[in-house]
Specification:
Layout lengths: L1 H24 L2 H9 L7 H18 L3 H24 L7 H19 L1 E2 L3 E2 L14
Antiparallel strand pairs: 1-2
């Protein structure tokens, strides 16, 4: 379970960090996606801040589970709304984007909540020696 948690969290942190930087830089592909669903350019830095904060929250959440769970909930809500915007505006050519992010967010949230270690009890954090279990 710990391996899956670390792997899915790493992928989610990486993808959201890339999206965050792209939003702050107002990358052309990010602006095109936001224009397709009528999100103004002025919102891009705020969206970048939300995604960046969630990425940091997930990374720290490996060691302090409540923060990871909160970040996971925030991402699920964010990408449910993004998926809803795509449906509302009938933008299906890039619909896979928010769906992939939503699936990753649901997976990391579930793993953050369900992860157990050692005795089978639920812990608030990955144990400090979580990396040892990778080779056990």
């Amino acid at each position: 379970m710990v391996i899956a948690l670390v792997a899915v969290t790493f992928v989610n942190v990486l993808f959201n960090a890339i999206e965050s930087v792209a939003n702050f830089m107002k990358a052309d592909w990010g602006k095109a996606n936001s224009h397709a669903v009528n999100v103004p350019d002025s919102w891009l830095p705020l969206l970048g801040l939300v995604k960046g904060a969630a990425a940091v929250g997930l990374a720290v959440g490996l060691f302090w589970r409540p923060l990871g769970i909160a970040a996971g909930v925030g991402l699920v809500v964010f990408f449910v709304l993004a998926t809803g915007l795509h449906i509302r505006h009938r933008v299906y050519h890039n619909f896979y984007g928010p769906l992939v992010f939503l699936a990753l967010s649901v997976a990391v949230l579930w793993l953050m909540i369900a992860a157990r270690h050692g005795s089978g009890r639920r812990d608030l954090a990955v144990p400090p020696t979580w990396w040892v279990s990778l080779w056990s």
